[in-house]
Each structure stands twice: as structure tokens, then as C-alpha cells.
Amino acid sequence: MSWQIKVPGSTANLGPGFDSIGLGLSLYLTLEATPQAEWEFVHQGGHVPADTTVENHLIYQIAKQVAERYDKALPGCHVVMTSELPLARGVGSSAAAIVAGIELANLLCDLQLSVQDRLNISSQIEGHPDNATASVLGGLTISSMADDGFVDTIHVQDVDVAFVLFIPDVELKTAEARGVLPMQLDRPYAVKASAAANMLAASLIAKDYGRIGRYMESDLFHEPFRAQLIPSYAEIREAAKQAGAYGTALSGAGPTLISIIPTAIADEFVISMQKQFPAHRIVLTTADQHGLMVTHL
């Protein structure tokens, strides 16, 4: 018995939806897993960890942790791993690996996890539910995580726009990006920031893309503090707006930026952005519609 585990990457926050709004992208981490006596990872293509052992491989560590959580011994496995998700760029590579590791344990140990189990465990390990829920469910997710680790998610599908990623050739660790954030916000400032987040969530559910773009660019929780870490932050936002984007925001903690654009202008938008920002990799994608998928091979 062998399985293919396919997990979408994701973008998170979309501006003021800090640590709570996620969107699955049609860019994937894929594992082909076959039980065997010993653990073995084979990495193919780019965007996969280099110089890693089985013991320090994130996917193995997550699978082992989940098996132990259910008092199971984790069997060996041969895993072929490919990825379209650049590491430390803000497109959910770690959350996708966590979701994949949980699913590996689920299959190898026959845990029979529910969707809610997957949401809870992945968000607990990740520390927040935005990327994790988007990788499990696909589409748009608006989520909260209670103190006991239970994740409540509103799931919106059929997001009928295109997305363009501006990926610079630099990494930005989430810990570094969090390090520039203030520990406290004044009440009037926090009220204004919260209002923008509420309007973003409502606009996303209503699929009012004009408002989505406006509130994506109205964040006060993190982007004003992280902008200094992001190559060409202000220039990309302005150029994307001039080229017809609804709005542009950091993808997760950055350094990637993401624009939401009408599907009809996608090709010309990408050509224009490639000319203006040759130091960035410009990637056109769509919202993933399925979330985590497991296929018997």
C-alpha cells in the first residue's frame, strides 16, 4: 500500500486578518509514502530541505509527535517529497509540512482522524490557525483557536479571482518578522485595527472584491512594522494598484507580497510586474479548491 499526500500552500493575514485568515493556494507539497522497515526521505526538485537527517526532518518529527499523542508506535516509511513552496517566504511551507506529517501518522497508524482533529492538531502545532486551516480545507478560512486548542473555522469556497505572488530572493523567518511587532497597542489604535479586520472578513464572505482590496491595504496590526523588512514593499503595492489589482498585502509574515486581481487581467498584469520587478519571482496562481488530498497509489 502506498499513498500520495498532496497539501496546498497558503497565504495568511491578507492584511489585518492577523493570525486568523488564511487562503489555500494552488501550489503544493506532495509526498509519496510507502511503508517499509526504516524511515527514508527522498527529496526531488527545488524548495525541499537540504542536508537534513530523518531525525531532524520536520515531517518525521510531526508524524512521530502525533503518533505518540495517540500512544502509537510510528512504523517506518519511504517518503518521496516534492514541493512548489519556497521555504521561509510566507507561503505556508511549514504549515503544509505539519499537515502532511499529521496525515502520514494518520495513515501509518490508522488513527482515523476527523477533519476537526486535523484542524485542531495542525493549528496547535503551528501556534495559530490561519495557514494550517487553509492547508487542511483549501479555499478561504476565517478561524479562531480557543485556549484548549479547539479551532472554530468559517470556510468560504469558490474564490473567483486570481492571485499574484511577488517572491524576493531572500528568506524571512517568522520569528524575525514577529520580533519587530509591538507588545501592546493603544485602545483607539486597536479599535481602528480591529474594525479593518472585521470589514475584511465581512468583505471576504460577501465576495466584495473592491472592499477586500481596500481593507487588505488598511492593516494596522503588523504591516506598518514589518514593511521595513520587505524588499520593494511600497513600490510593489503602488505598481500593483496602478495595474488593476484590487489590493496587495504581505503573504503571511513576508517577505512575499500577494495581490488579488481580476482573473481577466491576469496575463497582462504578470507581464507588467515582471518588467517592473525583475529581482522578484512573479507567480500567478488561484485559490485551491480541495485542501488536503490523499490518493491510494
Automatic annotation (TrEMBL):
GO terms for cellular component: cytoplasm. SUPFAM superfamilies: GHMP Kinase, C-terminal domain, Ribosomal protein S5 domain 2-like. Pathway: Amino-acid biosynthesis; L-threonine biosynthesis; L-threonine from L-aspartate: step 4/5. It catalyses: L-homoserine + ATP = O-phospho-L-homoserine + ADP + H(+). Residues 201-273 form the GHMP kinase C-terminal domain. It holds the Pfam family GHMP_kinases_N. Its EC number is 2.7.1.39. It is found in: Cytoplasm. GO terms for molecular function: ATP binding; homoserine kinase activity. Keywords: Amino-acid biosynthesis, ATP-binding, Cytoplasm, Kinase, Nucleotide-binding, Threonine biosynthesis, Transferase. InterPro entries: GHMP_kinase_C_dom, GHMP_kinase_C_sf, GHMP_kinase_N_dom, Homoserine_kinase, Ribosomal_Su5_D2-typ_SF, Ribsml_uS5_D2-typ_fold_subgr. Catalyzes the ATP-dependent phosphorylation of L-homoserine to L-homoserine phosphate. Belongs to the GHMP kinase family. Homoserine kinase subfamily. PANTHER family: HOMOSERINE KINASE, HOMOSERINE/4-DIPHOSPHOCYTIDYL-2-C-METHYL-D-ERYTHRITOL KINASE. NCBIfam families: thrB (TIGR00191). This is Homoserine kinase. The gene is thrB.
